[in-house]
TrEMBL record:
The name this protein goes by in its record: DUF1792 domain-containing protein
Annotated Glycosyltransferase GT-D fold domain residues: 49-274
InterPro entries reported in the protein's UniProt record: GT-D (IPR014869)
Database matches in Pfam families: GT-D (PF08759)
Domain of life of the native organism: Bacteria
Amino acid sequence: MGLKKALSSRFYYYQWLFSTRNLRRGVPQYKVLSIQKTIEEITTHKKSVSRFGDGEFRLIFPEHYLEFQENSEEIREKLSQVLRFDLENHMVCLPEQLDSVAAFDIPTKYWWKKFINKYGIRLSPFLDKNKIYGNSFITRFYLGYEDKSEKRNREIVRSLKKIWENKEVLIIEGRYSRLGVGNDLFDNVHSLQRILCPEKNAFAHYDKIYHAAKEYGKDKLILIALGPTATILAYDLAKIKYWGIDIGHIDIEYMWFLKKATDKIAIAGRHVNEAESQESFDIPQEFLESYTKSTILEITA
C-alpha cells in the first residue's frame, strides 16, 4: 500500500470510528491476556483451551450459520455453556480486539470495530467484564497485526512449540486441514497421530468425535482444528481431565508467515476457507506417506 493510500485509509478509519461511537456505547472492554501470557498459562498449567472468534459468537444467535457449520439449538447451548462455566484446568480465549485493537493494522481494526458495533451489546450477557480471558489470537498471530516482523513472529512460534515439545500428540482435524504437513510446526513432538473428521458440519458427528478423543487421547495432548466443534470439545475434554487445545487456524497462519503473505492466500494441500481461491487439495507426494501413517481413524459423514 502506497503512503497516500495508507494515510487515506487511516484517516477514513478514524473518521468512521468517531461517527459510529454511539453504536459501541455501553459495550464493556474485556480483559484479554497477551499472546505470550496466554501461551505461558497453557504451558505452565496444562490448561485446555476453547477459543471464540467471530464464527463462534455468531452461532450463539439462532439467525446465523457458518459456511462450514450449521446452527442448532444444541450448538448454541454448548457454546454459551463454555462461556458461562469455569473450570480450573480450562481457559476461555476471546479475540484480543475485545480488549484493544491497538496492535492491529487498519483493515483488521475496522473489521472488528464493525463486529463490535453489531454484536457487542448482544454478546455482553454471555461475557464477564471482571474475568481475565486468554487470547484467541494465539493461533492468528501474524496476518492482522501491524508488526509482521520475523523476530516477533519467530518468538511466538517458538513459544507455541514449547506447548507440545516432546509430547505425545493427537490431532483431531477436518479432512483437509493437514496440520503440520510440509512444515516444521510439529517437528519437536514425541509422537503424532491424527483423527480426521468431516470438513463441514462436524458437530453433527460430535458424539463419535468425543468418544474417539476419549479412546485415543488419554494421557496425550489433544490438538483440535475443527471450527466451533473444537471450542466445545476442548471444554468437554477438560471436564474429564483430558488436555485439549482448540488450535484451529495455526497451521494456515504459520504458512502465511513463512510465505510473508500480506493477504489471506490459498495454501497447496489444504482447504483455506478464508481465501478467495483454492489450490489443489492433493498432499505432495513427499509428505503423503508420513501423513497416511499418522492417521489412525477417519470419521466420515
